[in-house]
Amino acid sequence: MAPAPSITVNNLTFAFPDGSTGLRNIGLDLPPGSRSLLIGANGAGKTTLLRLLSGKRMAPSNTVSIAGIDPFATGLEGVTYLGLEWVLNPIVRTDIAVPELLKSVGGDHYPERRDELVRILDVDLSWHLHAVSDGERRRVQLCMGLLRPWTVLLLDEITVDLDLLSRHNFLQFLKRETESRSCTIVYATHILDNLAAWPTHLVHMSLGRVKKWGEMGTFEVPPTDGGAEGNSRLGQLVLQWLREDLEERGPRRGQGAEGKAYHHMQGIGGYGLEEKK
Ligand SMILES: Nc1ncnc2c1ncn2[C@@H]1O[C@H](COP(=O)(O)OP(=O)(O)OP(=O)(O)O)[C@@H](O)[C@H]1O
């Protein structure tokens, strides 16, 4: 069996076309077969990093390598990125039957994988996609996206509308994949429920930087604080990280300590809010 790919990022700085900085000096070395959770507040840079890793955005040369290869330069076979634009594909809102869709992505070449995914994601083969719920549609999409045996899976929070059991089964399937064949996963998520035993590595991003990363066991979990007693240890750790990040970042523009946002809202017609003095 060929070894699983490592994911290496070396001093990656990235600017968007408008000139704003997206990522700064990112360095990572995620080992073969790892399952990394990408953690960070909204706007931290997770999607930007995943898209660069997938080769969908061009990274500066010699900054990203997957199994030793620059994914943008070669269009690396086996790298699957499942993100928001993929799930917005209008095809999956038309009157099309599930077996047809699965066939269109190569289901007949991988019948065992197809049947396993259909079972794990609890997909009904008689569904037509114009007449299913959002979560049901998402399960069909995941079946389609995971059907070909990828070697690197980059997931940008696409499990939000799965029910708890479907999400659990899906994540267990991914875990078994990394344990039974040569593959590596990076998963950006805000939903940490029942996830503590899943990752091998954590990557903490804030303001376009990787602040910390490492093996799951190397992070010190803070003591539980008031109001968060029901949290898992992972949830407690991430809560602390996000609080620190918010403190470092400070208020967003337009929401200064003097209550500028309130002034503005009152000025445009009043939302029934009392101005805070
Ligand atoms: N095309 C773009 N041009 C300029 N800035 C952008 C562009 N796309 C994203 N940004 C900015 O880059 C920052 C990082 O965005 P990104 O989508 O990577 O964050 P994220 O960590 O995935 O957030 P979320 O958790 O909300 O999905 C944000 O401040 C965003 O406004």
Topology (SSEs and partners):
Blueprint: E1 7-15, E2 21-30, E3 35-39, H1 46-54, E4 64-66, H2 71-74, E5 79-82, H3 84-87, H4 98-104, H5 111-120, H6 134-146, E6 152-156, H7 164-180, E7 184-188, E8 201-206, E9 209-215, H8 233-249, H9 260-267
Parallel strand pairs: 3-7, 3-8, 5-6, 6-7
Antiparallel strand pairs: 1-2, 1-4, 8-9
The structure holds adenosine-5'-triphosphate.
Keywords:
277 residues; alpha/beta; Rossmann fold; 6-stranded mixed sheet; 3-stranded antiparallel sheet; 9 helices; 9 strands; 32% helix; 19% strand; globular; disordered C terminus; binds adenosine-5'-triphosphate
Describe this structure in words.
31% of the residues are buried. The protein is globular. The protein has a domain at 7-85 and 150-219: P-loop containing nucleotide triphosphate hydrolases (Rossmann fold), CATH 3.40.50. The strands form 2 sheets. A 6-stranded mixed β-sheet has the order 5-6-7-3-8-9, sandwiched between helices. The protein is 32% helix and 19% strand. It has 9 helices and 9 strands. A hairpin with a 5-residue loop joins strand 1 (7-15) and strand 2 (21-30). The longest helix is centred in the middle third of the chain and has 17 residues, at 164-180. With 277 residues, it is α/β, with parallel strands linked by helices. Mean pLDDT is 84; it is low at 256-277. The protein has helices at 46-54, 71-74, 84-87, 98-104, 111-120, 134-146, 164-180, 233-249, 260-267; strands at 7-15, 21-30, 35-39, 64-66, 79-82, 152-156, 184-188, 201-206, 209-215. The structure holds adenosine-5'-triphosphate (ATP). The site of adenosine-5'-triphosphate has 12 residues, from helix 1.
